[in-house]
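FW: tagging you since you asked about this chain on Friday. Here's the raw sequence from the shared folder, copied in full. Didn't touch anything.
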Amino acid sequence: MTNAEKEFYYNLSPRDALAHDIKDARRIYMEDGLYNSEIRQGLKNEVKMNKEIYPELFEK
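HL: got it, structure written out here
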């Protein structure tokens, strides 16, 4: 990751950082041919869990 990319990432809101990370994980799974309904559900659960554990960070 370049310094510019790091700076961009570090300045994201928690909500945007989570979305970025989930999108990146999805991309990696897809590139590796591993993305399926189980992975999709796991990523959705990760988002849900983060929202439940840290609700104050994910308010709109």
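FW: The mean pLDDT is 95.
HL: agreed, and Residues 3-57 form one domain.
FW: great, closing this out.
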